[in-house]
Design brief:
Length: 84
């Protein structure tokens, strides 16, 4: 974009958009949006492994942390200086 004071010099054109997203969308509105803006195609490599996701409860992680922490109370011992 040319500068107003010097038409031979050019700079960046910055446009600021203020977008208000709706709180709710109907199923029909969602279908229209998907038609206008299709999801990108994801290329999955042929050698990719298939995994199954399972739901995990947060309490499982708390229990595991408690088990892993056992025996590790306080900082470990440091290096002792040897007397000569």
């Amino acid at each position: 974009m040319p500068f107003k004071s010097d038409p031979t010099s050019k700079g960046d054109l910055i446009i600021v958009f203020m977008v208000e997203f709706p709180k709710k969308l109907s199923a029909e509105q969602i279908k229209k949006i998907v038609k206008l803006m299709p999801l990108p195609k994801i290329d999955i490599p042929k050698d990719a492994e298939t995994k199954i996701a399972i739901a995990v409860d947060d309490s499982h992680f708390r229990q595991r942390r408690h088990i892993e922490d056992d025996g590790m109370h306080g900082p470990g011992g440091g290096v002792q200086c040897q007397t000569q």
